[in-house]
Write a structure and sequence with these properties.
GO terms for molecular function: gamma-glutamylcyclotransferase activity; glutathione specific gamma-glutamylcyclotransferase activity; transferase activity. Its EC number is 4.3.2.7. This protein has 191 residues and is an alpha+beta fold. The chain has five helices and seven strands; from the N terminus they run E-E-E-H-E-E-H-E-E-H-H-H. The protein has a five-stranded mixed beta barrel.
Length: 191
Amino acid sequence: LWIFGYGSLVWRPGFEFTSRKVGFIRGYSRRFWQGDTFHRGSEKTPGRVVTLLEECGACTWGVAYEVRGEQIAASLEYLNMREAVLGGYDTKLVKFHPQEKDAEEPILALVYIATPQNPSYLGPASEEDIAAQIIVSSGCAGHNIEYLLRLADFMRYFCPQAEDKHLFSIEEALISILPCLYYTEESLEET
């Protein structure tokens, strides 16, 4: 089984896997439209995390993890709690295209998508409003700022050829609100 991650799963899968590949899926764009009241926010100040929006011609970069044998049940149980129960995400099968030049056919992968029908769905907002909400939100997995910056770093270092205007516009808005922001893991852990 392959599992595609496009948010925090790209740096913190939280389950055992056999292999991983960077690549993309077509027909979806990544959006900070899902609310989070557990991992990156609270009931009082929900965080903003990503979901996928169906969009013709778009593609979303991320990481696909291969799980085998006993890893399958364990990873699905873990992800069901993390993504579905606590996050409001549903599952879907998508075609994943590995980044490798010699990659064969696309790989069928499971992906978690938050739809507008779930109670935590926040929907669209301006990049400035999303950044302002991210700045004040923190949850059990850490500050919402860390989530945004780690995702932007992943895109810069692993997918430099890919564009994600939505993600980088929110990052720019956040930096303009906090011009003195100096990002390190240690400083975020202290907040």
